[in-house]
Amino acid sequence: MTALPHMTGDELATWFATEGQAIVVQAQAEAYYTETETGVAFEDTTPYDVWQRYLTRAFSEYDGLRWRVGDALVFGERKYGEMYAQALDDSTLSYSSLTSARYVAARVESCRRRQNLPWSWHADVAALSPAEQVRVLALASEMRGSKAWDRDDLRAYVRTLRQLPDPPARLTLVIGDAQVMAAEMFDRLGIEGCIALMNALKGMLADRMKAAA
Predict the structure, then answer these.
(1) Residue 27 half-sphere exposure, CB side, CA atoms within 13 Å?
(2) Which of 30, 94, 149, 182 has the highest count of CB atoms within 10 angstroms of its CB?
(3) Could you tell me what percentage of the chain is helix, strand and coil, using 3-state DSSP and rounding each to the nearest 5?
(4) What is the mean pLDDT of residues 185-212?
(5) Residues 75 and 136 both lie in one domain
């Protein structure tokens, strides 16, 4: 157990309110599960909120692992040549998992990554240009934060962008008689307007897919 520093009564109360309480809550939660090198076992009496917090943390750690694996692969491929391929033989991950992690990490540099968006959302925009990634991830961050978007909405938006004829055209939208940059769309339309626009685009895309079928 970590020794507590010497504190006055007020300092101890402040510490408990900010840090100590979280430690106590975590210790109580850990009584319901046991982690090993090969998995985790939950007690049948585990409360839902304890399980849900654990799952959320596991999701976050899994996303972080895929970024770290991808970045390490990008570096190793550039730095070590043939020895890079030999090192992959030690992996317990599938070839497709390694390929996906390397591709997304190479395409979406760390400066464009959003902490509040899952790795899978970054994978959905990896094929776009860097400028498009910045704009789409910024919009996705806003829309997911307000619970206006799920991953299907993002994918529909990206598909619509990729159907446009060339990269410069993808960065502009026509609103009324004015052409505006996609980055300005959220400011001009707001959340409700963006939702309406997305629904319209999804409808147009569905109609085109039916016509082409």
Answers:
(1) 7
(2) 149
(3) 70, 10, 25
(4) 63
(5) no
The pairing of beta strand 33-36 with beta strand 39-42: antiparallel
State the residue for tokens 């507590």.
Answer: 4
54/43 Cα distance (integer angstroms): 13
CB 182 within 8 A of CB 172: yes
- Whether 8 has a pLDDT exceeding 70, the answer reads no
Burial class for 28, CB neighbours closer than 10 Å (0-12, 13-18, 19+): exposed
* 117 belongs to a structural domain: no
Q: Is the pTM above the cut of 0.85?
A: no
Cα distance between residue 22 and residue 103, in whole Å:
37
Q: Which residues of 43-58 are buried (b: 16+ CB within 10 A; e: fewer)?
A: eeeeeeebeeebeeee
DSSP for residue 111? G
State how many domains the chain has.
2
Q: Is residue 133 part of a domain?
A: yes
DSSP letter (8 states) at residue 35: E
Contact 185, 138 (CB under 8 A): no
H or E stretch at 172: strand 172-175
On whether residue 7 sits in a domain, the answer given is no
Q: CA 207 to CA 16: how far, in whole Å?
A: 58
Residue 175 pLDDT > 50: no
Q: Token match 């598909």: residue?
A: 159
pLDDT tens digits, one per residue of 65-120: 899 999 999 999 888 888 888 888 888 888 889 999 999 999 999 999 998 999 99
Distance separating alpha carbons of residues 167 and 44, to the nearest angstrom: 54
